[in-house]
Amino acid sequence: MVATAKPKKSKPRSKFRASWRGQLRFGLVSFEVQAVNAEIKEEAPVHFHLLHAPDHRRIHYAKICPEHGEVPNDEIVEGYEFANGRYVEFGKEELDSLRTTEERALTIDAFVPPGTIDSMYFDGRVYYLMPSGNDANEPYTLLETAMEKMKRWGVGQVVFSGREQLAAVRPNQGVLMMMMLNYDAEVRKPADIKSEITRAHTTPSKLRLAEELVGQWHDEGEFDFSAFRDRYQQKVKRAIEAKEKGEEIAPPEEEEPEVINLMDALKRSVAGATSHEKGQHRHNGRAKTAKRRHTRATRRRA
């Protein structure tokens, strides 16, 4: 009897579009991953095109040579100006050839506690890392589990968007994430700004009120990011819908802000935070009571 192996089921194609594919390396371990943008494009800010007002045609940007006019992409190279009007030129393949296979990978050089990386170094780009192929599943799971257990983030470099960049890799609910970082030399330090600021003298009573306000103005439990919405973008989308229907856009009515001194502003803010906190307690208490009543009613029916 001849044994025949059952054909392997092909893995369904991912519904996510990869922004980058390459090796993830830590120590002597390496495996294939792909990066998926964490930003949901449908929720991204509304983008407008520039139009020519008289005929409403879209404005296009052309690559122009002063002598020959518009230039096709296949005739464009990159040049470094080493003297006035004099350049050394590179084709894309030439620049890519300067990097080794290892340098193209996302290589983790250190594992650090999360608090080690100051938030000012994050440049805002975040990607999910997904294993590519069955061979990558085990090392991916191993790395994510070890980092989660040890409470560590990885820091390393990767060639991304055509240049070498710094990145942090963190575990998050069973998934690895890559967060792009600025290099230290690219970030302006607080001391540079502090030298431009005049530190004002304040009173102990004002400081106590400010501390009380900071202490009261918080949400119980975990901070809920989903509670926040881009209100301006929502207004823009409504305005677009109104324009499509030929309706006029009316600006929102605003009240003139009351001018009060700093001490009164602190006192009113603390009072407002206190009443808000009491209201939250009452709301939470009513919610818990309603939940207990529902549970008892369910048990009685059972």
CATH architecture of the domain at 18-40 and 98-186: Beta Barrel
Oligomer: single chain
How many beta-strand runs?
13
Based on CA atoms alone, the radius of gyration comes out at 28 Å
Strand content: 25-35%
Q: What is the CA–CA distance across the termini?
A: 59 Å
CATH fold-type name of the domain at 18-40 and 98-186: Ku70, Chain: A, Domain 2
Uncertain runs: 1-10, 287-291, 297-302
Q: What is the CATH level 1 assignment of the domain at 18-40 and 98-186?
A: Mainly Beta
Percent of residues in helical segments? 25-40%
- State mean pLDDT (0 to 100 scale): 80
The secondary-structure class comes to alpha+beta
Order of helices and strands: EEEEEEEEHHEEHEEEHHHH
Major sheet size, sense and barrel closure = 7 strands, mixed, barrel
Q: Helical stretch count?
A: 7
Enumerate the strands of the largest sheet in spatial order, edge to edge or round the barrel.
1-2-10-13-12-11-9
Shape: extended
Written description of the protein model:
- A hairpin with a 2-residue loop joins strand 12 and strand 13.
- Mean pLDDT is 80; it is low at 1-10, 287-291 and 297-302.
- 32% of the residues lie in helices and 26% in strands.
- The strands form four sheets. The chain has a seven-stranded mixed β-barrel with strand order 1-2-10-13-12-11-9. Strands 3-4 form a two-stranded antiparallel ribbon. A two-stranded antiparallel sheet has the order 5-6.
- It has 302 residues and is of the alpha+beta class.
- Among the domains are: 18-40 and 98-186, Ku70, Chain: A, Domain 2; 204-250 and 257-301, no CATH class.
